[in-house]
Amino acid sequence: MTPVSSKLYADDVSLLMVLIDTNPYFWSSMNNNTSFTFSKFLSHVLAFLNSILLLNQMNQVVVIASGYNSCDYVFDSSTSSMQRAECLLEKLEDFVDKDESLSREESVDGVGFSLLSGSLSMALCYIQRVFRSGPLHPQPRILCLHGSPDGPGQYVAVMNSIFSAQRSMVPIDSCAIGSQHSAFLQQASYITGGVYLKPQVSDGLFQYLSTVFATDLHSRGFLQLPRPVGVDFRASCFCHKNTIDMGYICSVCLSIFCKHHKKCSTCGSNFGEARKQDPSASDQRR
Amino acid sequence: MADGGKVVKRAKYKSSVKVPGVPGVLKMTRERFYFMPNDPTLTTKLNVEFKLIKGHKFSKEGSSKQALLNLTQDQGGNYLFEFDSFPDRDQCRDFVASAIAACGEVGKATSEKPAVPHDEQLSATEMGRRIKLLQENSELQKLHRQLVIGGTLSEAEFWAARKKLLEQTENKKPKQRVALKNDMWSVKPLSDGQTNRVTFNLTPEVIHQIFAEKPAVRQAYLNFVPGKMSEKEFWTKYSRAEYLHSTKNIVAAFAEASEDEELAVFLKQDAMLASEARKKIRRVDPTLDMEADEGDDYMHLPDHGLPQVETKEILEPQYEPFKRSFSQYLNQHAAVVLRGRVIDVELGDTRSVAEAFTRTNQAELANDVSDENAYRERINKVTRVAEIEDLQGPRDPPVALLSIKDPRDYFDSQQANAMKALGDAETGIRQLKFSVSKEEAFCSLKDSISEINSQGLIEPIISPEVALKVFNGLSQNISSTKYHLGKNPHESVLDQLPSATKNELLLHWTSIQELLKHFWSSYPITTKYFYTKVTRLKDAMSQIYPKLQEMKESVQSDMRHQVSLLVQPMLQALDAAFAHYDADVQKRSAKSGERPNGFV
Ligand SMILES: [Zn+2]
Ligand SMILES: [Zn+2]
């Protein structure tokens, strides 16, 4: 018999990085407007995590909480003390306490944002470490369970995370649990080849999770999973917010303008005069 | 009677100083000199090339009555002339000097040509120096030929203006200084064998060496002598300490030292040396890894191959300061010898020797303090050499940092359209009118967590109705984009089949599902139990496989296509399982083949 210690990773062994949204303002608004509370959410998620662990003996689950001020690992099934997903509750409580202590403002306008960029980066770091652990490792993927609106200030960081996930061939699955769609997650899944889903029935979250997001990367080759309806990635200009098909792009910071400017309003680079006879001399898009 | 080309003087040619000599006329040209006796019958005519003249000597004015000039010949032998007056002689002497020099310049065959300054006896070295200067400096040589040999300047005048030049050449050859003795001061006392008297022999040279090698002794001397004790007492104490050391009895040394604090100074380890050693270590090239080098040296012997002279026994901490290492002593001695004499004081006066050493030391200390730059350079070197490449920014080309005024512009540029496409533009843009305090928000979050913690997961997690709704929603969504089987989307293919076929298919499907579930969950096989289970499951599935094939062929032709569409994925699933089983068995047998005999 082969010793258990030797790694025997088949192609359907998964490392599932789950990012859960713990923005308290978002969950308060959910409490007020829907019947889907944080404890319901946790019930569904914990059941899902346990079923992932039961699906294959070698599956590994890591949970990262995306808080309002910070993010942190709250569960890792590879540590011997954490065999069941319920173990994350204690750590999650500590995390929320810490997140609260980091809060400066007494209240927030709207529901604020959770630190998606931070938790995405942490997930990718963890995966990079696994990649470096040796030639045999579980197939990693990221699942974002996200409800807070997209934070415009995190745009650059989130996009960088998405691109690095794309480069390391790590799919980002996303499940929008709030009332709004998330363009961040839509793009993340689209670019990395993951699945984006916004459940129509909140109370059926577990069913969505186990039907769609439990599938390992190997099995996805044989299955029909929900496809995106097609994303409109057309840009609008920075200057007037008009949707444009063709425009000018700053070669330094990639800002988009509908007409030629002398200076980039985003990064301050000076543009040379566009040559009249050759309009393609200045960078053009589509 | 002298012009640029020749000199003519009255002179007597003599075979020695004592004899009266033959009076006549001495005539010198650049190439040669002639002597014509006044008496033409005499045969003492001379016609000698200057080439053959190696040097010249002359008598000092005042010290002797005779104005003599002695020209020494290359092959031995000489020509001695006495002149009527000293000025005459000097004129000839200068001419001879320049003529000899000129010959040397032209011929170079005879390298050593003397020249003559005023009145004083020129030493051979002085001569040599001048000639060397002329040979090394072609411009000076030209000048010398033109002015001195041309007669504008006398030899003495020419060189008088160039004393500096001469001194410089002199400095190039420093006086040889006597190095320190390379033997260590013998610590073996001379014992007369009869009494208990032990004699040490201390010479000024030995004291110098002690001071050079043992700064603590030097400092003690300056402190104690003559205020606390006489010089003799001092050296007696020192000798006593050395004697104690030579016995290698640390315990005895410790006992004596604890009674006599002055003696203790000599017995204890030299703190000044220790701090100096530390300073030197700090100056070592920081990138040098002495330990690593030692590892490279596989010939390395413990203690550099020195016989083990130190006591091996473990010392009690109180004795530690009295321990002395022979290799330390040897190193210090070597360092002092290699450094050479650093003080320029007449030995003998012990105090001034000690003070001179202290002065040199202080000067070095001052240098060290001002060594701030060197220190910084060392630190730079360390960071340069030991830098961790991953952590360094790109060095060149220098890049301007990207400064983005407001990253939200990018967000706005992209998201608006994406949201519109997702069909909830108005909810996306609508700001939720909502306000809650921080405390409230965090408290309700924590309450939710503790709720789950105390009550466990909500039972049931999901109601069958909701699950069905989700299923339908998902499959509708998926199938709507792919297949349209039958006219009515709710009408299943199965319903069109004969009920016997339908039931058979369903039965096979559920059993295959069950078997496959167990099959895949048994991998990877970690125990014997899984192994037998998988074999069992595989056999069961192999029995279903041909039945599926049979069924496909047994149905009516109009249904065959539909049935094969349904059976095909089942066969594929079984094929995948069989393939996995075979591959695993192969891998297993290959692995066990590699194992050495006897491994189970
Ligand atoms: Zn514009
Ligand atoms: Zn720019």
From TrEMBL, chain A:
Protein role: Component of the general transcription and DNA repair factor IIH (TFIIH) core complex, which is involved in general and transcription-coupled nucleotide excision repair (NER) of damaged DNA and, when complexed to CAK, in RNA transcription by RNA polymerase II. In NER, TFIIH acts by opening DNA around the lesion to allow the excision of the damaged oligonucleotide and its replacement by a new DNA fragment. In transcription, TFIIH has an essential role in transcription initiation.
InterPro entries: TFIIH_Tfb4/GTF2H3, vWFA_dom_sf
Keywords tagged on the record: DNA damage, DNA repair, Metal-binding, Nucleus, Transcription, Transcription regulation, Zinc, Zinc-finger
Annotated compartments: Nucleus
Transferase in keyword set: no
Tagged with keyword Nucleus: yes
Domain of life: Eukaryota
UniProt GO molecular function: zinc ion binding
PANTHER family recorded: GENERAL TRANSCRIPTION FACTOR IIH SUBUNIT 3, TRANSCRIPTION INITIATION FACTOR IIH TFIIH , POLYPEPTIDE 3-RELATED
Cellular component terms per the entry's GO annotation: transcription factor TFIIH core complex; transcription factor TFIIH holo complex
Lineage: Eukaryota, Viridiplantae, Streptophyta, Embryophyta, Tracheophyta
Name of the molecule in the record: General transcription and DNA repair factor IIH subunit TFB4
Homology family: Belongs to the TFB4 family.
Main location: nucleus
Complex and partners: Component of the 7-subunit TFIIH core complex composed of XPB, XPD, TFB1/GTF2H1, GTF2H2/P44, TFB4/GTF2H3, TFB2/GTF2H4 and TFB5/GTF2H5, which is active in NER. The core complex associates with the 3-subunit CDK-activating kinase (CAK) module composed of CYCH1/cyclin H1, CDKD and MAT1/At4g30820 to form the 10-subunit holoenzyme (holo-TFIIH) active in transcription.
A GO BP annotation: nucleotide-excision repair
UniProtKB/TrEMBL annotation, chain B:
Cross-referenced SUPFAM superfamilies: BSD domain-like, PH domain-like
Taxonomy of the source species: Eukaryota, Viridiplantae, Streptophyta, Embryophyta, Tracheophyta
Pfam families assigned: BSD, PH_TFIIH
Keyword entries, A-Z: Nucleus, Repeat, Transcription, Transcription regulation
Domain BSD: 112-170, 194-246
UniProt-listed GO biological process terms: DNA repair; nucleotide-excision repair; transcription by RNA polymerase I; transcription by RNA polymerase II
Leader sequence residues: none
Locations listed in the record: Nucleus
Family assignment from sequence similarity: Belongs to the TFB1 family.
Cross-referenced Gene3D superfamilies: 6.10.140.1200, BSD domain, Pleckstrin-homology domain (PH domain)/Phosphotyrosine-binding domain (PTB)
Protein name per its UniProtKB record: RNA polymerase II transcription factor B subunit 1-1
PANTHER family associated with the record: TRANSCRIPTION INITIATION FACTOR IIH-RELATED
